[in-house]
Amino acid sequence: QLQLVESGGGLVQPGGSLRLSCTAPGFNLDYYVIGWFRQASGKEREGVSCITGIGSNYGYSDSAKGRFTISKNNAKNTVYLQMNNLKPEDTAIYFCAAGKFTFENNWPLPKIGEYPYWGQGTQVTVSK
Q1: Which of 50, 55, 77, 88 could form a Cys-Cys staple with 72, CB 3.0–4.6 A?
Q2: What is the pLDDT of residues 53-66, one digit of tens each?
């Protein structure tokens, strides 16, 4: 069973940066689309970004564009979400998810239901 492990969350001041990591021990992520989602307290889970297995295609939500960058290190089998210029409204639990489907640049972000595998999440808090 594919298990995803997120790390890198924490407390940061507005305007600061964090880099989240997602890996899957024992599984080659080259065969999966990896998505980042977040869920703020009392709100629905929403898509933030995604990247294809070989890293050639990726997408962002409107709130992430220009501030977040998704990338994949194939040698380390790890997907990263670099988050810059963080805002209080970015406070949420961030989850990575994996699924096998096609994704092309400029497509809408995949829906939650397309990802059968999920990590436990990592808390990101943006506050003074």
Answers
A1: 55
A2: 887 899 999 999 99
